[in-house]
Amino acid sequence: MKTDKMKHKMGRGKVVLKRIENPTNRQVTFSKRKDGLFKKAIELSVLCEAEVALIVFSSSGKLYQFSSHDMDRTIRRYRNEKGLHKMNNHGVRTIEVWKNEKDELKKAIETLEIKHKHLAGEDLSTLGMKELKQLERQLRIGVDRVRSKKLHELVSDADEKSGLDSSDHVIQRFIPDGRCSSPLNMNHLGFPSG
């Protein structure tokens, strides 16, 4: 019996709070809810003699505001309560921006220091198998790049000293006297016959 009564109950169900995808519906909802919010702010200020200031920016950047008293006075009062009375609005914003940037840079430095330690083989106890394999792969790639650059430098130095171009030098490394008795041998080394 109780379940039958529950089925017939009228009322609004829970509203899922997520962004409204349809722009028209979103604008209608914004307008209705904004009006309701301002109505409540007015009621709060009148019924309870509260000092109320409400600022809303729409998604398009349009400003809507209500203040039961002078808005600037209420904002000054707020800033005094928060200990921000000695700074102007620009100063407050600048300090907040710099503080956030400092915190982000500090985190980035900490992350880079940890990665540097890992690359040096230090502080590996915090890494799991997946991270260790990834680190090993990064180190292997790094070693391959270093060897490749080293080989390139050695070949360049040898070419400068001998006056040979790089391809002649590579061929001479495989064939000590610089001659080849048959094209098959050259093909075997990976060079086309000519």
Automatic annotation (TrEMBL):
Gene Ontology terms for molecular function: DNA-binding transcription factor activity; protein dimerization activity; RNA polymerase II transcription regulatory region sequence-specific DNA binding
MADS-box domain sequence ranges: 10-70
InterPro entries hit by this protein: MADS-box/MEF2_TF, MEF2-like_N, TF_Kbox, TF_MADSbox, TF_MADSbox_sf
Subcellular location: Nucleus
Matching PROSITE patterns: K_BOX, MADS_BOX_1, MADS_BOX_2
Keyword Cytoplasm: no
GO terms of biological process kind: positive regulation of transcription by RNA polymerase II
Pfam families (UniProt xref): K-box, SRF-TF
Keywords for the protein's UniProt record, in alphabetical order: Coiled coil, DNA-binding, Nucleus, Transcription, Transcription regulation
Keyword Nuclease included in the entry's annotation: no
Gene Ontology cellular-component terms listed: nucleus
Alphabetized PANTHER family for the sequence: SERUM RESPONSE FACTOR HOMOLOG
Record domain K-box: where: 95-190
Protein name: MADS-box transcription factor
Superkingdom field: Eukaryota
Its biological purpose: Probable transcription factor.
Annotated coiled-coil segments of the chain: 95-122
